[in-house]
Fold:
Amino acid sequence: MNKFQHQQTLSQLNQRSLAFWTSRPDDWTKAVTEAEKIVGYPTSFMSLRCLLSDELSNVAMHMRKLVGTNHPLLRTARGLVYDGTHNLQTRGLIVLLMSKTAGVAPHKAQQLVEKDMIDGILPSQRSLAEITEMIHTANLIHKGVVNLSDLQPNDGPVKDMEFGNKMAVLSGDFLLANASTGLAQLNNTKVVEVISSCIGDLISGEFTGLQDENGNPRLKPDITFSDWTNQTFLTSGSLLAKSCQAALELADHDQNFQKKAFEFGKNMAYAQQLNEDLKPFITPDDNIDQMSISSAPVIKYILSQTPALPVSTLNNLDNRKILNLVKEGSIIKDCQNLCLEYGQIAIDSLDVFPDSQAKSALINIVQAVTE
Amino acid sequence: MAALRSRLNNGLLRFWIYHAAGIENRYIHSIFKDGEIFSKKIYPSKQSSSLILNQSCANHITLTSHSYSQTPEHDKKSIDKLHVSPHSLVEKDLSSLTDEIRQEFSTASKELCEVVEYYFDGQGKAFRPMVVLLMSHACNKHINLFNPQIIKSQKRISVIAEMIHTASLVHDDVIDAADTRRGKTSVNLVWGQRKSILAGDFILSVASMALARIRNEQIVTILSQVIEDLVRGEFMQLGSKENENERFSHYLRKTFKKTASLLANSCKAVAVLANCEEDVTDIAYQYGRNIGIAFQLIDDLLDFTSCDKILGKPTAADLKLGLATAPVLFAAQQYPQLNSLIMRRFSRSGDVETARHLVAKSEGVEQTKLLAIQHGKEAIRQINQLDKSDEQQALINIVNMVLNRSK
Structure:
């Protein structure tokens, strides 16, 4: 991989994670802003408690050393602290909306006094939303640890990159440790188990064979579309689905309702990833750099060819050539339809819950990524 | 010289006070009691001090229950004290440890499995699981409990403790850019930093799931505290304290968080699982805390006295990482010129050699050993409050093993 490509993939990696939640700024921002009002407060301050801790202030102080290097931690941190418009923390928001949509199970509601709930959400569910964000952010940071033996000349001095790794490991660990104590405080071992499994899934998502040693996307031989589904579930679906499920567990809802919440989160994540994967093909001028070789349209293209296309041919093409190949057939349309389908399944899974502002907000958020 | 000596004495005593205040206010009383023994016996004058020091360091130390026992011996059956082997008592459980851990990873992909299992090769000392298992039996016997279900949960704690420990090793090796671990190439050099870190996270998530499946909220709280302590301890290693006294208490608090918390809290967890009263869970916790601190003090000492071959890791490794451990901190009392080296984290060329030289010239190593012995004594005093049993005796013997280990 040459110097330029390396730089590109590194930034691509982060943009992918950042841009994941930023489709159609207008619709999206509107849906999110409306939703934040419903749950009582903007969610962007959720991790503030962590960010203001001595430990992370310490990391922030040292971050200056990384300026001028290519260490991914720098970008992740920048996105976290300054970039309010990116709405990085919408996972937490969705958990809160799901909590409010479902309410608490009748037998639990009887035991509650009015002050136990704020804006229709249990304090434990708010903690859970925060934990979800912390786990996601920790994963983002840890995925940005770089292999020191694969450094490129323009990455910056090895010493600095090593230091960047150290900071990344510590700050990610700090968030995970906070998530762990936060989970313990919820006093529900089922929630601890299901949310801990999300961390495992996020890691498993980095060991599926759909990425190289440095975490850059790559294709594997005999790829099928279920590889894409599996990858998407592990890297984003699991956390969203299981957090929604856990929110209902905290409100004492039964397995059936929990399953619906899980399905909502999972299908929402699929729709969102498809939307993300499609961007470079729909508006190439802005997004061609973000194209991923393991995105849904590329995989669908490979599968559409007879005889099946050897993946090596695509691995050697540049983004523009891939764009032209994929755009030829009906693949883009197919993917858009698939995105709509996933969105519809997500919306349908909310049928068991009564209509409410919170439910409409969830539907709006789904529609912001599918339309 | 006399003035220097008295300064040293005051310094040590001061450390004790800070140490006691810093870690556990509740136990300030007992530590003071020990502190008195400490100052009387060890520092009456220069001559006798070095006599005792030389004796205690040159010979094999055996702290027996007699000298520290607060409770009268009321055991009916006699226990062949020196021959209770800690390892053989729990050998069956320990032999299945690696398999049990590997079983937990069975859902992971092949590639992920290879990385996460790299350090679970059965070659580790399994020190933590051994202590936890012995503590389980000692507590159970103390309250006459023989519940297979509870014993099974306690065994799970020993597995989880080893997993948490290993996850932190993997991350430490990346942070410290280690080359080797237990004589084999370190995980970061084999798999790269990125995968190593992710594998560490995976081990932790599997440990958390196993912990949750015990279905006991209190246990989850106790062990999640360990995870927090481990990280906070690592953060504490980032900075050096300006103030000399603060520096030692900082070091001891760091030592508690990075090493002793896991032992203290997993010992407590197995006592809680046995439904022991609070006095017993406290004994378990204090035993784990003290043996953990003693363990780390000896580890820090060996970094100065052992050669590479014995330890399986390069010596003076701590200095090279910029870390000032007990031997250096003690030596700095005698040779204040070490303070500026500590502050700049031994970063200039020649700093590491200078520090090693001054530590060798000073009594830093002996004083570290004495501090470890004090913690060993306290661990024994604590465990002596439990009814006599083979396992209880084994926990006493482990203290001696920790104090006398050379690797």
